[in-house]
Every structure is written in C-alpha cells, then in structure tokens.
## 1
Amino acid sequence: MTGFGPEHLPYGVFRRAGEEPRVGARLGDGILDLAALAADGPLEEDPLLFFQPSLNAFMGAGRETWRRVREALRALTAGPDAEPATIPLDEAQLLLPIAVGDYVDFYSSLDHAINVGRIFRPDAEPLAPNWRHMPIGYHGRSGTIVVSGTPIRRPRGQRREPGDDAPVYGPSVRLDIELELGFVVGTPSAHGEAVAVDRALDHVFGVLLVNDWSARDLQAWESRPLGPFLAKSFATSVAAWVTPLDAILDCRVRAPAQEPAPLEYLREEPWAFDLDLEVEIDGSTVSHPNARHLYWSAAQQLAHMTVNGASLHTGDLFASGTISGPAREERGSLLELSWNGAEPVALGDGSTRAFLEDGDEVVLRGRGGDVALGEVRGRIEAAR
Amino acid sequence: MTGFGPEHLPYGVFRRAGEEPRVGARLGDGILDLAALAADGPLEEDPLLFFQPSLNAFMGAGRETWRRVREALRALTAGPDAEPATIPLDEAQLLLPIAVGDYVDFYSSLDHAINVGRIFRPDAEPLAPNWRHMPIGYHGRSGTIVVSGTPIRRPRGQRREPGDDAPVYGPSVRLDIELELGFVVGTPSAHGEAVAVDRALDHVFGVLLVNDWSARDLQAWESRPLGPFLAKSFATSVAAWVTPLDAILDCRVRAPAQEPAPLEYLREEPWAFDLDLEVEIDGSTVSHPNARHLYWSAAQQLAHMTVNGASLHTGDLFASGTISGPAREERGSLLELSWNGAEPVALGDGSTRAFLEDGDEVVLRGRGGDVALGEVRGRIEAAR
C-alpha cells in the first residue's frame, strides 16, 4: 500500500528539464501527465486546464469538472488491464501546486489552544472567552508559501529576553514547527454573501499538509495587540500534492458535541477527519496526532470566514492551526512537545531538541485509510 | 489647481463600454490612454505593458521603466504646445488598479495608538511595550480590496454585549472607517533576504489612499489572541489612482527623532510625508489629519516587513494604519472622533454619528502641494 493508488490520485504541478510546468496526478511513484492525456485524447478535457504553472485553472473550472476528471483518471488507472504511462517522480521537479490567494490560519485544536494557554498564562483560564464560540483565525502571508523540499532559512528579528526592557535583534532562537491540515478553495463565492455551513465543502477542492513555521521568540514580542506577523511570515511549507476532497470523504468520523452549542450559522453535525499524522525530525518520529481531535471543522471554518461577506477566490488556502491531541506524544509543535523548552524532546541519535537547530530536517506525514497525504519536508538553514 | 496636472499623472485602470481594460494616467478630468499612446508611437514602450487589467505588468517592469514612462508623459503633457488627447473621466469605468498580492496593515500613528489604548484600557499604559521598537502590523485580506465607489455592505458577525457571557449574531452596530495611506510594491525582493531601510523606497511604485473599514464590535470580541480577522476582512477600499512615488517625494519633511532610537535595521533620518488629509461623511468634513504625524515611515515599515526574509511581490500593498494627529479634529476614525461613541460627531445636516449608519457616504481625500491623491469613496449598504 503506497498510499498513492488509483483511489487517491492527488494533483500537483511538475516540470521536466527544459519544459514548461504542467499539471499531473500522482500514481504510485510516478506522475500521470494530465496535459498530455488531455492533448492526446484519453482525457476528454481542454488541455489548457493542465498546461499550467498551477492548479488554479483546473480548480476554477468547478466541481463538475473535478468529478469528471477524477472519474476518467480512475477509469484509466484502476481497471485490471490498466497500464497507464507515468513519468518517474525522480525525473520531474515538483512545484508549488497552487497560486495562493488569501491564506487564513485557524486555531481550531482544543488541545493546542489549551496547551498554549497553560504555557503562557499558567495562572489564568487557558482558553480565551471567544474560543468555543467561533473558529479563531487570522490572515497569514501568501507570498512566502513554498513547496515541500524548499530550504527554510532561520529568520532574524526582534525578541525580548526575560527581564529586559528593550529588545535585541538577531536570528530566532526558538524556531518551531506547526503541523496543520490545509484546505484549498476551488470554487469562489460572491463578495457580500455568506457561505452556509452545509454548503461550505462545495467550495473546497482538496486538502494538503502544512508546516506553519513559527519563531516563538519573535511572536511573543510582536503579537500585542494585532497578532502574529513576522513570526510566521518568513515561510510556510505545503505539500506538493493536493488530495481531492472526494478521496478522503470516507475518512470523516463523528466528533463529540460542541459545548456550548455554536451559533446557528456554525451549527452542523459534529465531524472530523480521521487522519493519522506524524512529525519527524532528523529521522525520529517525535509526535503522531490525529486530525479527528480538531474541534472546529473545515466547514465551520469556511462558513465563519465568509459570514461577514468576505469572498472566496480560487486558490485561497485555509489551514486548521496546529493539530494536537490530548496525549503528550500527540502534540503538533515543539513549543508543546518541549513545554516551551523545559522538557526537551529526545531524538533517536541521543540528542535532544527544545526548538529547531540549523540543519534539522522536518517531515510531516499523514494517512487516512489507503490514502497517504503528500509529505511536507523542510531543512533549516542558518540565518544569513 | 485640479491636483491632477502634468506634475502628478497618477496611474489607474479604466474600461470603456465594450472594450477591454487598459492602463491610463489621469490628467485633469481626463485619462491618457497609455495603451493607445504606446501602440500608436508617442509613448515608446511595449503596448503589452498597458493592455492590461491591472498595473502589475507595468509595475513589474521596474523603476527604470517607470521613470522613462513618466518622463515621456510629462513631455507629452507639460509643454506650452501640449494638447494631449484624453478620454473624459465620465466615459470610462475605473477599476481596481492593482492585482493585490499580500496586504499588510500597520499601526504607525502614535496618536492613533495612544487614543485606542486610552479608550480600551483607560487605567493602563496606552502603548504596548513593543510599539516604539518596531512598526506593529498584521496581514489583512487581499481578496476583498475594492476600488473607490464600490458599495460597502454592513458585515454580520459575532459581538458580545457588555455584561454578557455569550455572543450574539447580527449586523455590526459599530461600523467604522480608518483613514490610511497605502504603498504599492512594484519591485519584488528575494525570499530569505532583508531589504535595507535605505533601499526600501526603491521597491515602492506609488501611494494611494485607503479606507480600512472596521467593525469595532466584531473586533473587540474576536481579536484575542490572534488579532483582527472578520472585523476587517469584509472590505477595504482603495483609490482608483496610484500616485507615483516620484510625484510626492517633494512632500517629504523632517520628522521628530524617534525615542528610543530604533534598532540599526530601522534607523534612518526621521521623515514623513506632509500630506493634508480629509474625512468627509455625507458632505461634512469630520476630520483633517496630516500624514506627517506618522511615527514610522514607509521605508521603516518595508524594512521591518522583510527583516525576517519575507519576500515582496509586485502588487503587494502595505498601509500606514489609521492616521491621527494630536488634535481632536485630526483623528482618522470614528472610534476616536466619537471616543467610542461617547461624544458623537456632528454633521452639517444637524445629525450626529457615533459610528456609520446605512446610507452614509464616506469620502477620503488628500493633498500635498500641487498633487491631489485620488479620493476613496464608499457608501454603506444595509446588511443582507
């Protein structure tokens, strides 16, 4: 079970040496060239949907097109006599799959929010009063979203050491990961109109893993009163492969009732994605959360994001926020895993990590049933 | 003095009935059709820079191109025998001039930050400890930026009434304006590299007025701990005309020394733009701040935004945050003008405003020397 069989078929953008980028679908260790399949006939679609540097043209074509293409690709790949031609993965460069419009990052894991509250405000109620009433979120930087494999340079910035009045400037000394599940908007919505929670998933093209790199020292100093800014904006890594929503709908499970009941515009039967996730640092698994622990669903996030009339555009990305479970080994950030550095995490080579060191390579993985989400890989480079 | 003479020549995008959008430059009450001028010869540039639905292709061509075009247009329009053909403004629809990449909103007015602190935390130090050390900012929503004249629908959302535990849902009852100066990025920067403060303006194509509409009731409830989200994301209005940076460089004036001295990467000779600004509601001028009161300069904002290695892209927009001066009649938001509703503002028709009412039309204007910034106009529509 590779996780990339005919029941999955995630989409990405690839480039072979000397050629223009094209849209492909992953099958095993190869890539189906959708541009060639459309140009040559087996895929009866406009080839211009796939001779593209991003998935946006295909995503903007709408749900009926997505369904038709997926059915055609399954027919081409799943039959007993199917012998589809693929391009070996190692013959292609994988590019950022989407031209990102707006990027919104939520804060939808109850365990994560409670952990953060306990770490930074140990004597106070860990959750803010609004947390159980709405999916808290903020806008991140779209222009620094990079594809898996892109090196991550340690950011510089201001931090304030404990006991000091004035800040110092230099490389972040508390560089962290955030394991998240991202949702890609395919179908836009009209400006001024809210999307109902029970229609929200109609707008979602697919999902992908996200590593929302975070400089905790910069974040602590800059965030008052307008929230995180440079602590997050230096880079966000996403997978090269976008899993079609239809490929993981079977992973949906019932979730516990939300208390208090949300306002009407957020109300639905509670559900979550049962996806096993993993954080690996330098070859050692340091955490394995499951996405079923998320409190707010993707549908609630999208409904909330548009309830004020804000429009959606093809290519918009919204992410869950760090996914943590109730157990220590289910925490989705080093901030939580090391309890802000107090309890460093052991790696297989005998070393420990409070936060990331230069040279560290982080890999995020995820799996639901026969579907393996595309990994997100990134190695830390020293600050310039 | 119209403010739109040959010394100004701001750029915008217009469309005549039945035609595709084109880039133009405003001259008086008319539009120079840059696409036609380039196609027909008087402007020796690639016409494809101007047969465009946004300024981005032109902005991405770089500073040398901007200078060459501006000099050519001045030669065509400024001489004693100049009789350039223009399209009357009322024969064209003005479109959003830029395809916005990332939108960052700063909080750079000292008087505004102090007023907000005094209103919401009357017993505490009004400024957060970080405020004088860096230009505080956050990312806003790019996909809901609209051109002047676009109606603004009152947003719905959650707010919590004083004394209540749970929120209520409905139309915002504290809808506000924010008068800001926006800066448009023309020249991109490399990911991973900071832009030095003394090179920052090299990346700026031009400036324009911004109205960052704000729902104060939504904002108060949602902002902890990640900052404003839906309170701002429903709409942001910008002028139809982008004033070239070169047209207002003469408006730069010395500013008071910053105390404490900023960290090295933010250090420069203090300066600001001497631009007279105006907020009009239903025909009554309610405020007239000046941009020279901004504490952090556009160059410092840009240097800070990239100090962590975040890249700039053509079309990125960053704005000053609400511009207020020290006097009451220089406050750039109704929150401040009415002191959170306690002292409603009188309009010329005898009515008063604590916050905006349905049907209100807000116009922002600005002027420096012979240059009039393009106005930003918006009328409030009732919530759906």
## 2
Amino acid sequence: MNAEIIAIGSELLTPSRQDTNSLFLTEKLNQLGVEVVFKTVVGDNRRHLVSAARAAVSRADILIFMGGLGPTEDDLTREAVAEALDLELHRDPELLAKLEQRFATRKMTMSPNNEKQADILAGATALPNANGTAPGQWLSGKYDGKEKIIMLLPGPPHELKALFEEQCLDRLRARVPPQFIATRVLKVAMMPESQCDARVAPIYKCYPDVQTTILAGAGEIQLHLRGHAESLETAQQRVEELAGKIEDELDDFVFSRNGESLEQIVSYFLQMRNLNLAVAESCTGGMLAERITSISGSSRYFLGGAIVYSNELKTQFAGVPPELIAKHGAVSREVAVALAEGVRERCQANLGLAVTGIAGPTGGTPDKPVGLVLHALAGEGKTEVIERNFPGDRKRIRWFATQQALDMVRRRLM
Amino acid sequence: MNAEIIAIGSELLTPSRQDTNSLFLTEKLNQLGVEVVFKTVVGDNRRHLVSAARAAVSRADILIFMGGLGPTEDDLTREAVAEALDLELHRDPELLAKLEQRFATRKMTMSPNNEKQADILAGATALPNANGTAPGQWLSGKYDGKEKIIMLLPGPPHELKALFEEQCLDRLRARVPPQFIATRVLKVAMMPESQCDARVAPIYKCYPDVQTTILAGAGEIQLHLRGHAESLETAQQRVEELAGKIEDELDDFVFSRNGESLEQIVSYFLQMRNLNLAVAESCTGGMLAERITSISGSSRYFLGGAIVYSNELKTQFAGVPPELIAKHGAVSREVAVALAEGVRERCQANLGLAVTGIAGPTGGTPDKPVGLVLHALAGEGKTEVIERNFPGDRKRIRWFATQQALDMVRRRLM
C-alpha cells in the first residue's frame, strides 16, 4: 500500500516556512511497510484543496490531510474533502458537547465559529485530540472505486504526533498487509556520479525489488537501498546482497555502509590506530577543522592547527620558508607539502594535513585557475600530495577540498 | 499568475530528506508577484511523475519541475513531462556536442548514459547549466487549452539557483504582469525571540498592509517585511516606514537592514576601519574562521589564526602560559583573554578574537556546564570578555558562539 501526505496551510507556501510533519509521518508509515509516493502542499483555498484531494484519491491508497481543521474562516479541510469525495458533512452533537465542555472547563466562552470543529464526514470516526480543540477524523471504505484509508489530522506538530501515534497507528496496522522494509546507505568519496552509476547500474538493475536511489553532492555520492519483502529476513537479505555486490564493484571508493559521514569514518580510523592529527588550512579557512571537530570527542585525536590565510602565517605557524612561497607561489605542491610537514612538526602530531588553493571567485590566473587545490598529508616518513581542479562556486570548491583532504586520511589509514 | 513547484526524487520522500529548493524559488517568484499555490514532491517513478505533471498543468500557470534531469536510469523528468503534455522528445545534436566537449575538457570519457541529457522537449529552449551536465529547459505556449510556462531545472541546489537566476528570471519577468512588492530583511543579533517580538509586535500590527514574518535562529532573528501596493513608491514607503520604526525600537541590536550576514557586516566594518583580524578557536574548532573566510576577499582583513583544540597548542600558537590553564582551566575568562591577546600578538593583527567553551554533549561539570562559552576580543589597549551559557546541542552551541564572537567585533567597530 502507498500513501499521499497533503499538508494544508498558506504559510507552508511562503519562502520561510516548510512542512516538517511529513517527515515524522513518513518514518511511521515506512515502518509499517507503507511507502509515501506523493507529498502535496496546498494553501487555505477551497478550490485548490478540492483539486489536491481529488488528485490524491485518484493515485494513493492512504490519504493523510494535515492542518486546516481549526475554527477560522480559512480552515477548510473538512469542507474540501467532503466536496472532493462527494460526502455529506454533519454536525456531531456529541463532539459539539465535548467542545463546549472543553471551553467551560477553561472558563472561556466558545465563539460560534468553533462549532464547525464538530462537523464530521459521513462514515468517519472522530479522533479525540488531547492537545487541541480540533478532533481528527478516520475514514475507510470504497472511494473512487477502490479501498482507501483517509485521515484528517490537526496541523500543529505536537497535536498531530500524539493523535497519530495514539489513534491512527493501531488502526493502520490492522489494515495494512504485513510488509517489511530493510534499508542501507552506502557512501562513496571522490568519484564522478556518471562513473559511479555506470558501474553500479548493471548490478542494482538485477534487484528490481530493492529501490536504489543515487544522490550526488560535492565529492560524495550516496546510494540509498531500500528493499520490501514479506519477511524482515528476506528484505534484509536482499538489501545486504545488493550492498555487498556494489561494495565489491566500487571497492575502496565506498567509505561508509551505515550512513556515517566522512569525518565520522576518519574519527573511527584515527582512534583505531591510536593516531592524532593537526591541520594547516589556507583556502578552506577553517572548514576542514570545523568538520573534524563537529564530531563529539574529537579532542581524543585532533590537536588543532593553523589557519594560514596570509603568507606570513604560513611561515609563523607552519614554518614554511618565505623563499619557497616566493619561488613557487602559495598555491603549489611545494607549499602544500611544507605546510603539512610544518604543522605536523609544530603540533607534534602523527599526521599533518594541509590544504592550499584558489576558492574564487577572484584570484585565479590562466596558470592557476579558480578551483585549483593542493592537498598534502604528512606522516611518518612519507608525504603525499593530490592536485585537483574543482568545479563550482567558492562554497562548493571549499567543501570539495575538505572532502578530498579527509579522504586522504581515510585512505592512508584504511 | 500562479505557480506549482514539483520536486522530483525518491530521496525527497524519505524521513531524512526534504526539498529546500522550493523555498528559494518561492522567494524569487513572490518578488515577481507570482504566488506559489501548490508544491508537489514525487519520486523517481514514471507513472507517478506523469500523474503529478498532469495535475499541475490542469491547475497552475507556471510549472517548475526540479530534479530528475541527470544521466541515470531513474532520471525520468524529461520523459514524464513529454508524456503528460503529449510532446515529442528529440536528441539535440548541439547539446550532445557540448556534453561531449565538457567531458573531453576534463579528460574524462563520457559513458553512453549521459547522452539522454541532450534530449529536449519539442518547442523547448535548452538552458545551459554552467555547474553541471544536465541542461534545463524552458517551454511556453498553450497546454491544456491555456497559456503555460514550464521549466525543467536540475535538482542540485547550486545548479538550480544559478540556472534560475541567470536564465529564467528575465524570461519570467517579461511574461508576468508587473506588480509592486517591496521587501526588507532586518537582522538582529543576540536577542531572545520573545523579547524581540514583545518589542516589535505593537509596531508591526499598525501596518496590516505589510506582511511581517519573524524567523528565529541561534543568536539571530530575521524580520522579513513585505508590502504590496499599486505603485512601487507606496509599497516602498510603507515598508521603509515600518523598518525605520522597528530599527528605532531595537537600536543597535539590528545589525543588517539589507539581509547581509553578520560575517558580511564584520567584513564591511573591518575594511572601513582598515583593520585586520586573527582568531584563536577552541570549542568552535574552525567554524568562526570558516564563517569569516566564506566571504570572498576576506584575505584583505583576515590573517588567519589557530585552532587550539589541545592545551599544548594554546601555548604553542597563542602563548598561553601552561600555569594559567592549570590554575583556571581551559574554559575560563583568563584563558580566553590570554588566547585573544596571544593570537593578536603572534599574528601581528589589529584585533585578536578568541573562543573557548564546552560544546558538549560530554565534558560539562556542575561548575562549567555544557553550553558555557567565553569570548574575548583583544585590540589596542583593551580586551573585552563575554561569558554566555548557550542552550541546544553541539552544533547550535558552536554556532551561537561564533555569532557572539562576530557580534563583539561588530559592536567594537560600530
């Protein structure tokens, strides 16, 4: 079975607000084996709401409407769903009494606009809302010629979550055929997306029962695998089998098989090998250290380092000879190596990691264009350098550079 | 005119990912007077995509499809839109040549799956994508019996943003009836949201024609003002009048009246005063320097500094006496001052800025709980310290600390 989630509210169509309830609902639905196939956001406009409801009923088995159940003029969900499904809406005397009682308990007078919160769709069950005035509604039956489950839930997240967990989950579980979903996220470092897909597509195509989604970012590709089956064992077995084959194909480009970030993996490796690290950053300006220290407990393996934005500080903090900078330029293999070795020595670290490059948008030359970045890793007896030309804007080039630098540490310790 | 935004990608229907491009697009469309009336999220499934495209064409004037333009098997947007609108799809030789050239320039072989990125809808104009392989498409004409504008844009945010701004905005502006909207974004540093709202609500309530939205983040509140009127002058005059009154009320807590970031404002002030800056970061671990260097041209006023995660490096890079650390602890006013003064001296900077604190989740004590952060700013003849207890998780505490540190520089130079 599949579901569509319809979030209602004009504020959700502004540049500054976003529906987040659907993330919670998606997680709960997925756990029951229900897949969310559409999410729709629609404003407080009856015609638009009816259109959204009609589209949803034509294409999903489970429809969850969120919001628009309050007492105001622009709360129109009940009316719109009634119109779209061609159902009567009647005022429930019991619900009305409860509403009046709720106001009386709080010693407030109930204004007449509140009464419409007692309106209920023909055939629906009211779902009491412990945290607000608007009750939810549960409806199941044949609509548009097919069996459908329809829920109307309040929009405020704390009301929606409590109501869904307490009153919808069990009802859903009883109606949904038992299904099991297994998932896995593989992450791949520093490989072009098309190359990655060309290598893995022939593999995942043999697993039509496992949905494979490829997400590409700067220097990182994520492969999300998601398998359905009639038992958890089968679902897991299929996903693990596919994951294993993809890992065999991509080999050491795969850095994570449980969704961990690259900085988390570097953290594991450094701790496992009982090594520590220091950095010298020019063009990344602190981003590399920020990523490393975003991990709680990073003080166990990260000493710190230097942000050597000016040439003077390259000398002051990492001992790079001014003549070397004068001869080769600050963005050069020679200076990258000297930075890595220098910061390693100054910090008495096991590993020294350095980045120098041209993040742009200004500062590029024909010889040394924007996007040129040198990465160096110094360790016991050996310093490696990697030169790259990264595409994109300043932010993206800097991110790419930190990704490449972290990947050098990972590969060294693997 | 109104618009529907359709975000495509199965990953956007999982509990862990959300479309954010639509927020950017909504802002740009609103500025043209175009309202977003529906947002739809749909997975990489041809039948679902066709259904979403059909629903959209039946109810909105402008359709923006985002994502699903890449080279992989599950990139199906072109095919689905062609099917929904009953249009031919043909391979464009010129686009194909450009694709091949792009790969050749990077000395990479183009795998055959890339070719479909040269497929174009009958009647559409290809929109070159400077940041990726997949070009966008622009289509306008009569569909479903009405004039429609249809855009196919790539999903990665940096590609979408650049492509939309450079190639869609002018085309849209030429087609949309002129409307007059004035906006202003005021940004406020280091003030609690409830206090801010209590002070400004009585003011903005007197301007019902200006929509005021308050967004609160860590150490920053944004007030978005948006006025519609029949002439640009009236809209601007109302927005400016309200903005002026809010600024009078909040005084020097307002750091920006044109939407600039705090690091941008600090950049202006440092350049205006012809001063430079160095930093010493403990708990923020590079985040402060990263924010400063995110501004292009920051090398004019930022020298660099030290990430002094370990106590040894506090001594090595900022000359903090080990006895001082032993006596007061690394998270103390005394060490914060010594770090700021020490890094200022070592870097020969006009200003030395330091942060030391407990970002958590571990490392707190009853005396020095998680969230305690000391910020110090050393300059000619004077060093200031600010002690704060920030709420939230590691990420939020670190962000708060960088915000407070930057705000100290702003206030010193104001």
